[in-house]
Write a structure and sequence with these properties.
The protein has 162 residues and is of the alpha/beta class. The protein has one domain (24-161): Glutaredoxin. Helix content is 48%, strand content 22%. It has helices at residues 2-21, 29-38, 54-70, 89-98, 114-121, 150-161; strands at residues 25-27, 43-49, 76-82, 104-108, 131-136, 139-145. The longest helix is centred in the first third of the chain and has 20 residues, at 2-21. The chain starts with a helix and ends with a helix.
């Protein structure tokens, strides 16, 4: 009987974990802006990417390594902001699962207003991806335009986490 109960708990644990990985919320720019402002006293890494962007896909393993390294640090959080279209949500979900993305992924469903929100994130951002922004207590501390190496990402996180 004990083994059956253990097996049941194990099964429920896997089911809950898979359910968390099986969904991605779609948000508007204002919602993302609020999330950034609410991450007080944390280093928040916000990476803008898409499943169809080769440099984005290339750098994601580095982001997952860094996310894994700092996941237990209460002062660190990472959000991956997909710029894929809302109609491609299933492809994004499959990508998350296939690439084992462990950071939180949100789908920014605000393509029509890109010319409004891109300069609000960074005046020097020309709209190309990947782009990574680093915030501390809701204030932007670093902007990286383009692909980041693991070393660049690690240095920026280390520098701003302390």
């Amino acid at each position: 009987m004990k083994n059956l109960i253990r097996l049941l708990f194990l099964f429920l644990g896997f089911t809950i974990f898979n359910a968390q990985q099986a969904s991605v919320s779609s948000i508007k720019y204002e919602d993302l802006e609020k999330r950034i402002q609410q991450e007080n006293a944390q280093l928040l890494v916000v990476n803008f990417w898409a499943t169809t962007c080769a440099p984005c896909v290339k750098e994601l393993p580095h982001f997952m390594e860094i996310n894994e390294k700092y996941k237990d640090n209460p002062q660190f959080k990472m959000i991956l902001v997909s710029l894929d279209r809302l109609v491609d949500k299933e492809r994004v979900l499959k990508f998350i699962k296939n690439k084992n993305l462990t950071a939180e992924v949100v789908l920014l469903d605000d393509i029509k207003r890109m010319n409004t929100w891109i300069p609000r994130f960074e005046k020097d951002w020309d709209g190309n991806i990947p782009v990574t922004l680093f915030y501390k207590s809701g204030e932007k501390v670093h902007f990286n335009d383009g692909e980041m190496s693991k070393e660049e990402l690690e240095q920026t996180v280390t520098k701003n986490l302390n």
